[in-house]
Amino acid sequence: ELFGAVEPLLPSLREDGVAVWVLGRGPYPPGVVALQELLDEASDELEPQDVWEPRDMNETCLYIFTSGTTGLPKAARVSHLKSVMCMNFYELVGASSSDVVYLALPLYHMAGALLGVVGCLGIGATCVLREKFSASRFWEECRAEGVTVFQYIGELCRYLVNQPQ
């Protein structure tokens, strides 16, 4: 439903070598990958384990970007092991699939993407994503969404404490 906002940018994205994947039924212009069609065509059979299982859990699984607080933002390597450990983060702190997790951290950061979103996937919890943190709207948003867990780093709690009652 949001593809219309991206469509005018397709020529410049192609020039920059950016792949555009869309989940939903097309039709889409040439060069746009329609994921739903690929999912429909995919086999229900699992690939052999040696295709999808990492040879070494310490190998690179993905890269995230640092926030740049100690210099320019840069890519940081995350191993398969660390990714799997992030899936268990919320379970370690007592959360479960019945929880609703409020997340207003940037998704390019490990705390937001891996501990936050992947952590919710790991326990099957609902994740409420906010584009940015707002101390003045925090409690209202939490009540409206039925939030039971709030993930934070840094100064977010201080901002909440400094809000009027």
UniProtKB/TrEMBL annotation:
Protein keywords: Ligase, Lipid metabolism, Membrane, Transmembrane, Transmembrane helix
GO molecular function: long-chain fatty acid-CoA ligase activity
Sequence ranges assigned to domain AMP-dependent synthetase/ligase in this UniProt record: 40-164
Stretch forming the signal peptide: none
Pfam families membership: AMP-binding
Family named by the database record: Belongs to the ATP-dependent AMP-binding enzyme family.
High-level lineage: Eukaryota, Metazoa, Chordata, Craniata, Vertebrata
One GO CC term on file: plasma membrane
InterPro entries associated with the record: AMP-binding_CS, AMP-dep_synth/lig_dom, ANL_N_sf
Gene: Slc27a3
Membrane-spanning segments: 107-129
The reaction(s) this protein catalyses: tetracosanoate + ATP + CoA = tetracosanoyl-CoA + AMP + diphosphate; a very long-chain fatty acid + ATP + CoA = a very long-chain fatty acyl-CoA + AMP + diphosphate
Keyword Magnesium carried by entry: no
This protein's name: Long-chain-fatty-acid--CoA ligase
